[in-house]
Sequence to fold (263 residues):
Amino acid sequence: MVSRSPTAPARRSATRFADHFSRQAGAYAAFRPTYPRGLIARLAGLAPGLDAAWDCATGNGQAALLLAAHFAQVLATDASREQLARAVPHPQVVYREALADDSGAPSASVDLITVAQALHWFDLDGFYDEARRVLRPNGVLAVWCYGAARVSPEIDRVLDWFYTQRVGRHWPLERRHVEAGYRDLTFPFAEVDIGAWSMTASLDRRTLIGYVGTWSAVGRTHEAEGGDPLVDLATALAAPRPDKAATEPRTVTWPLGIRVGRQ
Fold:
């Protein structure tokens, strides 16, 4: 399917790329949660074959590496060169700088396409045209997003305050699609119900704050105000539990909004 070198650039389309994450690529690689292995296995089981998958907007390759456990080849594309520079090499994964509507993959060459936490940034018509082009007959497209992290009532109240009030006015408009679990977006494929899924991770306070620091609204707030809003988050998180060490791990859950369809 792919013959270029592991970091080969593809032809750039004319579609505008709104880059909210290159500046935070290092934090993104360090703090973003990992997707459920069971979800990837379920999607692989729906695909018509296991020859090739395309992880679009791969970021640092989190989903691509999981796909490599099931597919002979994985094409992992992202429009951010800085994100790709943080990706973990794998012999079955080819990383390529490319926009969502210009993958560089041959037509009818891919069994499964995944888009994790990125569909809301796309030119949907262009991406869907590209997905239909590269998918094999009966090929599967799976897109998912995750919104609010849930920990405990007291911590959730702080996270919700930070999300809606402290940095709320700096969220890009596209964030509303994540809040809707992608149910408000067009999805012109025959949908398949795979049930409810969520991500979990064990994070201490420092790591939770690091994760929040990857939010696009945090970077935009920092640029607009000149100060770091995470200082306020750290203070608010410490207030309810001053007797607890910041290194105490807590289970964090992110419910997934997921849509799966066939070509």
Remarks:
- Confidence is low (pLDDT under 50) at residues 3-15.
- The longest strand covers residues 250-262.
- The beta strands are 52-56, 73-78, 93-97, 110-116, 135-146, 190-192, 198-203, 250-262.
